[in-house]
C-alpha cells in the first residue's frame, strides 16, 4: 500500500527515485544548491514495525562532512521512533524537506577535488610510475584495414618507392618559369 502511495505522490518528481520496491532515494534541495543532500531509505522485512534503514552514503553527499551527516541521520532517527508502527517513508522525506535549513546550518562544503588530489599525491610515491600502462593500439575500421592491405605486400611492408615524388610532374610545373 505504501509503495503505491509513494509512486502516485512522487510521480514526475525528479527528486524521488525508486531504487527497488523496498529502497528509495530523495534529494532534498535543488540540483545546484550547495546545501542539497540525498537521503536513502530501505525497508526491512518487518517494516513498519521495525525502523527502516536510513543512509546518506550516496556519492551526491560527498561534499557534506560526516558530522553533519550523522546529525541529520540522528534527527531522522528521532522521527522514525515517533512514527514506528506506521508507514513513514513519505513522512521522513517531508520532515527532511521542512527542516533542510536546520539540518544544514553547520554545513561547510568540503572541496572533494582537493581531498581526492591530496589522497592521490600521498599514494603516488608508493606506487610505480604510470609507465606500466599499455599504450592502446589505434582501432581501424574494415575499410581502413583493406586500404592498408592493398598498399602493402603480403608481409605488411610498403612497396619500394611508395613515397617517392613524381619527378616528371614536378619538372613540368616548374618549366613555366623557365620560359
From TrEMBL:
The source's superkingdom equals Eukaryota
Q: Where is the composition biased (Basic and acidic residues)?
A: 147-158
Query: One Pfam family from the UniProt entry?
Result: RWD
| SUPFAM superfamilies noted in UniProt | UBC-like (SSF54495)
- What SMART domains does the entry give? RWD
Start and end residues of each RWD domain: 1-103
Where in this protein does the record put region Disordered?
A: 124-159
List the protein's name. Answer: RWD domain containing 4
Q: Which species does the entry assign this protein to?
A: Pan paniscus (Pygmy chimpanzee)
